[in-house]
Design goal:
By secondary structure, the protein is an alpha+beta fold. Helix content is 31%, strand content 25%. The protein has one domain: Ribosomal protein L30/L7 (Ribosomal Protein L30, Chain: A). The chain contains two helices and three strands. Pfam families: Ribosomal_L30 (PF00327).
Length: 59
């Protein structure tokens, strides 16, 4: 596995489950098309799995 994951928010959180909005915020994403790099670990992978329909992930 890679050391870092490049995560981009590609869909708005408007109308999403409140828990999913908090997960996106915890990943460090603010606006649509905002990209962050996060470490590749089990916690981040679990968050991505929850809100994968909103994200684009590159290794």
């Amino acid at each position: 596995m890679a050391d870092k994951l490049k995560i981009t928010l590609v869909k708005s959180t408007i109308g999403c489950v409140p828990k999913h909005k908090k997960i996106v915020e915890a990943l460090g994403l603010r606006k649509v098309n905002h990209t962050v790099e996060q470490p590749d670990n089990a916690a981040i992978r679990g968050m991505i799995k929850q809100v994968g329909y909103l994200l684009k992930v590159e290794e």
